[in-house]
From TrEMBL:
<feature type="domain" description="ACT">
    <location>
        <begin position="761"/>
        <end position="838"/>
    </location>
</feature>
<keyword id="KW-0378">Hydrolase</keyword>
<dbReference type="InterPro" id="IPR006674">
    <property type="entry name" value="HD_domain"/>
</dbReference>
<protein>
    <recommendedName>
        <fullName>Bifunctional uridylyltransferase/uridylyl-removing enzyme</fullName>
        <ecNumber>2.7.7.59</ecNumber>
        <ecNumber>3.1.4.-</ecNumber>
    </recommendedName>
</protein>
<comment type="function">
    <text>Modifies, by uridylylation and deuridylylation, the PII regulatory proteins (GlnB and homologs), in response to the nitrogen status of the cell that GlnD senses through the glutamine level. Under low glutamine levels, catalyzes the conversion of the PII proteins and UTP to PII-UMP and PPi, while under higher glutamine levels, GlnD hydrolyzes PII-UMP to PII and UMP (deuridylylation). Thus, controls uridylylation state and activity of the PII proteins, and plays an important role in the regulation of nitrogen metabolism.</text>
</comment>
<keyword id="KW-0511">Multifunctional enzyme</keyword>
<dbReference type="InterPro" id="IPR043519">
    <property type="entry name" value="NT_sf"/>
</dbReference>
<comment type="similarity">
    <text>Belongs to the GlnD family.</text>
</comment>
<dbReference type="Pfam" id="PF01966">
    <property type="entry name" value="HD"/>
</dbReference>
<keyword id="KW-0808">Transferase</keyword>
<keyword id="KW-0677">Repeat</keyword>
<feature type="region of interest" description="Disordered">
    <location>
        <begin position="1"/>
        <end position="24"/>
    </location>
</feature>
<feature type="domain" description="ACT">
    <location>
        <begin position="871"/>
        <end position="955"/>
    </location>
</feature>
<feature type="domain" description="HD">
    <location>
        <begin position="522"/>
        <end position="638"/>
    </location>
</feature>
<dbReference type="InterPro" id="IPR002934">
    <property type="entry name" value="Polymerase_NTP_transf_dom"/>
</dbReference>
<keyword id="KW-0548">Nucleotidyltransferase</keyword>
<dbReference type="GO" id="GO:0008773">
    <property type="term" value="F:[protein-PII] uridylyltransferase activity"/>
</dbReference>
């Protein structure tokens, strides 16, 4: 067959075969992708032949610009047509195949020009043969609008100068058209040698498709690759691909339930489906999901799930690329509403359209995980059966079915729990819950056949089973398992059992909340909070969480904590407050789970007030006695305080990476220890004075290289709240910093980076004054610094110590230190009057989609939260420089900020400022209060639609006034 004949073959279609030409999408069995309505291939070919015929130069160089402009038009019109088709049918996999087919024809057109008109290659010249193969994702027959174009130029064993010239000619055209092209020019021998040593290259060549050129050369690669690379190497390939997958998952937090998921690389995304495709093609020598059904790996239903998952993920990815005009793989908050609209999602009571879309996304990601687990388990079973010789015999003895004490319905099969027959659930539906209890008791994983049988028996979970006391007792045992309750609850959830047995939980499965604070879906958050409690109970976090660990060991009924955490967010997504609705659900569910009236009341209280302790610790002045008294009145008993403290810790730690930190832990510990004597009638193991004395002594002991006079003088610089709220290691670091700074320079700064936590800490020592908080926040805003944590402490000599933790922006240490240096320079300029804040921040305003987040501004001026000062509460949408604007406005209102507690929950800020007038009195005038509210509302509304690069979580300013 001639070169030109091969390039013209299948001009508008893309066949799928096992070897030779390669394979396309793994999901559907339709072998053809039509370009009807997208591109008239034959007409374009004739047009280009006619253009080349008019060329004056032999190599058509004089018409190259004409060819390029026409190709740009072909690409633009073709992609626009495919985009419109996607908008009409939302068939993502078909869109990806259409884009790949269009790319095929584009390459063939350029190739034909090169072969026929530029280089005039003789069809039968073996030394000038070249095969242009699509590899990688393109070789699978799918492309996203922003995908790279991966090409392999296959040349004869002897270097072909003409072949290399053709490849170069094609590449320059593709680059000029704006494509990102990954390419390599190799002989067949090169491909085989490299594929043996490099799994990435091996995978790339595995997914190959002859776009144009020599079919004979491509067939030679097919035969050699199958014989010399693939044969006998399935086990090592599978191990490499699964290890690669695990590494990729670890980078993304090892969860598929991130609220801004990576559609391509994230867990449950397209790359996981690709991994199944690679392994199936390599191990089973198949190209279609139908072939996997025939091989007994997937059922028909699972084949359908695979097809739907792939199509949905491709639809999302293609819409993202078309919307952004680039290869955007992260489904970010600003894209989610747009994609939800494109895919036709509507508002539902309690859920926005975008939240319904994202719930569907996470359910699809869960399906991908289920398919991966089934597929990998089938491979493992096959490996166990096929193990040769003595090793296989020993393995078969070790893994053969073993009985489980107390049951005849289940046994241990290959170190996993499995059902003895297909009727165990039908005969006794309680077994659907019992299998999870047995697995927890004996620390077993689940056999894939058992999970399949469970999924096919979900209809047996009905009202009778939910009301069955034995089933509920077994469920409570799983929930409160002392070893690993999260694992077994997660398996229940993935199998669909948890949502059917507890329908209230089923409503929040895969539910995301459209905000920037929560990192996971609601069900994932609940399971992670239970995992945190289990780790505390096992003593794994004793060094990090000593108080919570101590409390758990003293509780009368540990079950209350597990049930409360399981239910604390179960009413999310309803029109009413989720805490109130959750408490009502708890009063109904707890008796069903077997809890008595007293336990039910405690759990329902914990669910209703599970946010009280964290809000009090982060948004109230813990040095104000009124704060402690008010909190104690809400808690009422020491038992409730203990339970609430542990629930709060687990809840915060399960929100997402970086949300919990030592500062929050110290605040909660302080609140607990301050409240404990109030609830216990004044008795506590250590009084406040004793704790203060012990804290001062600890710091004194750590400063042994200081003189006695230096130590005494330094300890007198701090007010009591500093010693009680700052961890000892940080106190020592602060002491060294203040010592080095001396007293001559009124301003000192210090920078330390933490690459592991991806943060940078900036310490500032400066004279205290009313606008200090505003200026420090403005300095960060002026450098686009994202404040993750900040604490400000006044010293007895009139200075203030501020420790700001900002999110890291640069991987390189030198770059990050230079950025921190610019922030410190901004601080110096602002404090010295060399610049003004408005000038510093003006160029840093970033545009936000105005309708992305709906946070209504709210200002509350409250004189009941403190006996001595007025508390101003501010809620609103975060933006660049907002903290600076708010604190500046408070100063303009002639108010003195005595204590500032600023928290950011994603896009929402909740601030509390403890203020007095300039005479140190409360603000009681109604007229003045109205003026405060009006001015601060204007601040919140003045920059609507702008985005903040400063997220302050939390800022604590502690002042040493002794009257509180």
């Amino acid at each position: 067959m001639s070169e030109n004949a091969v390039s013209a073959e299948r001009a508008t279609t893309r066949p799928r075969t096992l070897a030779g030409a390669g394979s396309a999408s793994f999901t559907t069995e339709d072998p053809l992708v039509s370009l009807d309505g997208i591109l008239d291939v034959e007409a374009v070919r004739q047009e280009f032949d006619a253009l080349c015929a008019t060329a004056r130069s032999a190599d058509c160089s004089d018409i190259r610009l004409q060819l390029l402009e026409r190709l740009k038009s072909v690409v633009s019109q073709g992609r626009a047509a495919i985009r419109e088709m996607l908008f009409e049918d939302n068939l993502g996999a078909l869109c990806a195949r259409r884009l790949a087919a269009l790319q095929d024809e584009l390459i063939r057109i350029i190739y034909d020009v090169a072969v026929k008109h530029v280089f005039k290659i003789a069809p039968m010249d073996p030394d000038n043969r070249i095969a242009i193969l699509a590899v990688g994702g393109y070789g699978r027959g799918t492309l996203a609008p922003g995908s790279d174009i991966d090409l392999l130029f296959l040349l004869p064993a002897r270097t072909s100068s003409v072949g290399e010239q053709v490849a170069q000619y094609l590449l320059y055209f593709l680059w000029d058209l704006g494509f990102k092209v990954g390419h390599a020019s190799r002989s067949v021998e090169d491909c085989i040698a490299l594929a043996r040593d490099d799994f990435t290259i091996r995978t790339s060549i595995l997914e190959r498709w002859l776009v144009a050129g020599s079919a004979e050369l491509a067939s030679e690669l097919d035969e050699r690759f199958a014989r010399d690379v693939v044969q006998g190497t399935s086990r090592e390939f599978i191990a490499a691909k699964l290890a690669e997958r695990d590494t990729r998952h670890a980078k993304s937090g090892n969860t598929r339930y991130l609220v801004e998921p990576n559609v391509k690389e994230g867990k449950g995304g397209l790359r996981d489906l690709n991994t199944l495709f690679w392994i199936a093609k390599y191990h089973y020598r198949v190209d279609t999901s139908e072939a996997l059904v025939k091989a007994g790996v997937f059922s028909r239903r699972e084949q359908t799930v695979f097809a739907k998952a792939e199509d949905f993920l491709w639809a999302v990815r293609c819409h993202m690329h078309f919307e952004t005009g680039k290869a955007e793989e992260r489904l970010s908050f600003d894209l989610q509403p747009l994609i939800a609209e494109r895919l036709g999602y509507n508002i539902h009571p309690g859920l926005q359209a975008v939240e319904r879309f994202m719930k569907h996304y996470f359910l699809i990601a869960k399906d991908v995980g289920d398919l991966t687990r089934i597929f990998c388990a089938a491979l493992e079973e096959e490996e166990a059966k096929d193990a040769p010789g003595l090793r296989g015999f020993v393995r078969s003895l070790r893994n053969r079915a073993k009985s489980i004490a107390g049951t005849l319905d289940f046994h241990i099969d290959n170190n996993r729990i499995n059902a003895v027959s297909r009727d165990v659930f039908k005969i006794d539906p309680v077994n659907i819950i019992r299998i999870f209890r047995l697995a927890a008791m004996h620390d077993l994983e689940y056999h894939p056949d058992a999970l399949k049988l469970i999924r096919r028996s979900l209809r047996l979970i009905n009202g009778d089973l939910r009301a069955n006391s034995q089933a509920n007792a077994l469920f409570l045992d799983v929930l409160t398992d002392r070893n690993n309750p999260e694992l077994h609850l997660r398996r229940m959830n993935e199998a669909g059992v948890l949502g059917r047995f507890v329908p209230e939980f089923g409503k929040i499965v895969a539910m995301m909340q459209f905000n920037m604070y929560h990192h996971y879906t609601v069900d994932e958050h609940l399971l992670r909070s239970i995992a945190e409690l289990s780790k505390i109970e096992r003593g794994e976090l004793a060094n990090e969480l000593p108080l919570a660990t101590e409390i758990v060991g003293t509780l009368r009924d540990r079950r209350l904590l597990y049930v409360a955490l399981f239910l604390h967010d179960i009413a999310k997504g309803r029109p009413e407050d989720h805490s109130v609705a959750g408490a009502r659900l708890a009063r109904r569910l707890c008796p069903r789970f077997g809890l008595d009236e007293r336990a039910t009341e405690l759990v329902s209280w914990l669910v209703e007030d599970h946010l009280v302790m964290s809000m009090t610790a982060q948004q109230r002045d813990l040095a104000d006695r009124k704060t402690i008294v008010d909190f104690a009145e809400k808690v009422r008993t020491l038992e409730r305080l203990k339970l609430l403290a542990v629930v709060t810790v687990c809840d915060i730690r399960a929100v997402g990476p970086g949300v919990w930190n030592g500062w929050k832990g110290q605040l909660l510990r302080t609140l607990y220890l301050e409240t404990e004597p109030t609830l216990s009638g004044g008795f506590t193991q250590t009084s406040r004075e004793e704790r203060l004395t012990a804290a001062r002594r600890r710091l004194e002991d750590r400063l042994q290289d200081w003189s006695e006079a230096e130590r005494g003088s330094y300890l007198d610089l701090h007010y009591p709240n500093y010693f009680l709220t700052v961890p000892i290691d940080e106190q020592v670091a602060d002491a060294e910093f203040i010592r080095r700074s001396g007293t001559k320079d009124p301003l000192a700064t210090e920078v330390r980076t933490d690459a592991f936590r991806q943060v940078t800490r900036i310490k500032v020592l400066a004279p205290d004054h009313p606008r200090l908080v505003s200026q420090l926040a403005g300095a960060c805003a002026g450098s686009d610094a994202n404040i993750a944590d900040s604490q400000i402490f006044t010293l007895t000599d009139g200075r203030a110590l501020d420790i700001m933790t900002i999110s890291r922006s640069f991987e390189a240490e030198d770059d990050e230190m230079r950025r921190a240096g610019r922030i410190c320079d901004n601080i110096r300029k602002l404090l010295s009057g060399e610049t003004v804040m408005s000038r510093l921040i003006a160029d840093r305003r970033a545009v936000r989609h105005a309708d992305l987040f709906d946070v209504k501004p709210k200002i509350t001026v409250d004189n009941g939260l403190s006996n001595r000062v007025t508390v101003i509460e501010v809620e609103g949408l975060d933006r660049t420089g907002l903290l600076a604007d708010i604190t500046g406005a408070i100063s303009d209102l002639n108010l003195d900020i005595r204590s500032a507690h600023v928290s950011t929950y994603g896009e929402k800020i909740i601030d509390a400022f403890y203020v007095t007038d300039l005479l140190g009195m409360k603000v009681t005038s109604d007229t003045r209060i109205a003026r405060i509210e009006k001015r601060l509302l204007n601040v919140l509304e003045s920059a609507e639609g702008e985005v903040s690069s400063v997220k302050t979580v939390p800022v604590q300013k502690s002042f040493g006034y002794q009257s509180i």
